Amino acid sequence: MSYADASNLLTSFLRKCRLESASKGAKKSSGYPFDGEAGMIEFADSKRTILSESESTNLMLNRILRIRQTAVMIARAQTNRYQSEPVAMTVNVEPNPMVLRAGEVIAESKIDGKQSEIVVFQEITEFVRTYVNTRARRLKMIPVRGRDGETFGELTIDQMLSAVSLVRSAPRLLRIQAVAIADTRAADPLRFEIVIK
Question: Which helix (H) or strand (E) holds 95?
Fold first, then answer.
């Protein structure tokens, strides 16, 4: 990647971070070493001397230019923030390897089709929460952190209802699988479908 490409990539990424932060109520403040609703804070030494915005940008560009593999930039808030405050971020560049191929079985378990719709719905939800998310962690996928904790990906309500209907249509012990819909890298959302056999 050229310096110009890296600079454009970082500028676009930081703009996305500012827009996301602003959409959640972050505001600019003159008391921070960056201009905007969100920005990087980097430290120069063990005494935690804060770098200027341009110094932080140059440090980040050097990290990007050293990358020799597919990677992902991840911005994380350094501390909890309140509405009307800017978001001080740590930005990391991490490897982003391929972890799943389309059609690959992510997780598998058993489910009883004789149970009620509510029980089947709960068991599918638990299957995703336990088996699918555990496999995603073992594959070192990068979760999205939100108010409800870490998520790697989830089923839509239509997918859930379809899966419940399939299980209930065969009143016996069935095999349930979560199957990757597409080739997936570590930082991608985990897109999968439920297959009943």
Answer: strand 87-95
